[in-house]
Amino acid sequence: MRLNLLTTTTIAMLLASSAYAQETIKIGVLTPLSGTYAGIGQQVRWGIDQSVEEINAAGGIAGRQIELIYEDSEANPAVAVTKAEKLFTVDNVDFLTGTVNSGATLAVGQVADRADKLIATTVSFSDAITGSGCSPNVFRVNARAGQQSVALAAWLKQEKPGAKVYYLGPDYEMGRSTVAAFKERAESVGAKSTGEVFAPLDSKDYSQYFGQLRAARPDVLYTSVAGNDTVRLFTQMNDFGVSEGLTILGASGTVTAQNINAIGAAAEGFITGVGYSVLIDSPENKAFTEAFRERNGADPDLYGADSYGLLFAYKAAVEAAGATDTDSVRAALEGLSWETPQGTKTIRAGDHQAMQPMYVVEVKNGQFTIARSIAGEDAIGPDTCDKF
Asked: HSE-up of 54 (CA within 13 Å, CB side)?
């Protein structure tokens, strides 16, 4: 009788274990699928979908398949909060990613704290996300504004010593953060700031700012507009003759594979500091780029590459932890190193910011070219998070 009881118990445990192994791991992707940042959201989706296809085809995460649940954030923090609450409480996702707008990432991080769930951004630049606004439940695997600025300032010091710089950014968290980060770094290498202006997101007419820009008489313009806003800004500057004789530097999301063709000749000479380029000469990046092009009919940009790499980090963390609960995965992600198309990335445990090599990229003859590289440890900057 005892043998039968043990046999029955063992069978029940095996069945339960088998059922658990068959359950999907749900990942919420909250990204802009409409609006001015829809192109960025498309790269996020392409990168994530490609990584999930590869992971699932190879057996999933600890034998479990990944299930993606998409929601459109509209690049609006208020909408993102509502959608995040739905993903956490109704869909019961195990993990959330995809946020683009830095304000949305900060707001969704607070929702994650309340729900005791983890999120990771692959796009948002604001230093606050892993700095003053850091959270134990928020990770970032892309380069923050400060990392981009280190690479770009190194180029500025060598190529334009003592340059006079004017700043134009979008009027929200990311825009102000990126301008502040580069302004501080540029001034530290001898540049002189001549003024700054912030335009509303999705601005249709940038010509209203051109008088101020001309009056400042800068050698260099730094901007962190992105998506369709970049197309309008660069086209209008070219049409009004504002860009003549002006070196334009910008955040890594300003000119990308998504909008460079729409910008056309107006993008010529643009320079940025980035954490990814299709030109990175490694077998891993070549394989990723070829697969991405074949799958999506377009080149990956930094958003597609960082989004692709994220779920391999999540897979490594879950398998190392042997669980998907928040505490276990958080501990496994802290200090994690993993391979990506960019090379090895390491998540710094103290602030959850990924360390990675950085590159200065210039547009020449309508194509991106790598001008120089900066080691990850030289670009990441100090850990300023004091929340955990």
From this structure: 17
* The token pair that represents 179 in the structure block: 């301008």
First to last CA, the chain: 54
Contacts of 15 (CB under 8 A, 6+ apart): none
| Distances from the Cα of 94 to the Cα of 71, 107, 287, 331, angstroms | 15, 18, 29, 15
- Cβ pair 134, 385 in contact under 8 A: yes
The C-alpha angle with vertex 66 and arms to 61 and 72, in degrees rounded to 5, equals: 140
Contacts of 264 (CB under 8 A, 6+ apart): 235, 366
User: Largest Cα–Cα distance of the chain, in whole Å?
Assistant: 94
* CB neighbour class for 126 (10 Å; exposed up to 12, middle 13-18, buried from 19): buried
Element (H, E) at 291: helix 283-296
Return the amino acid letter for 105: T
- Distant-in-sequence contacts of 370-373, Cβ < 8 A, 24+ apart: 370/277, 370/279, 370/280, 371/155, 371/271, 372/151, 372/154, 372/155, 373/151
Ordered domains of the chain (ranges, CATH): 11-143+279-356 (3.40.50.2300), 146-274 (3.40.50.2300)
Look at strands 358-364 and 220-223 and give their pairing. unpaired
What is the token pair recorded at 144?
Answer: 């923050």
pLDDT in tens, 265-295: 999 999 999 999 999 999 999 999 999 999 9
Q: Express each pLDDT in 71-128 by its tens digit.
A: 999 989 999 999 999 999 999 999 999 999 999 999 999 999 999 999 999 999 999 9
Q: Where is 80: in which H helix or E strand? A: helix 77-89
152/133 Cα distance (integer angstroms): 24
Q: Strands of 251-310 (E only): list them.
A: 271-274
Q: Tell me the C-alpha distance between 278 and 287, whole Å.
A: 11
Tell me which residue has tokens 């829809």.
38
pTM above the 0.85 mark? yes
Q: How many angstroms separate the CA atoms of 275 and 353, rounded?
A: 13
Q: How far apart are CA 140 and CA 199, in angstroms?
A: 26
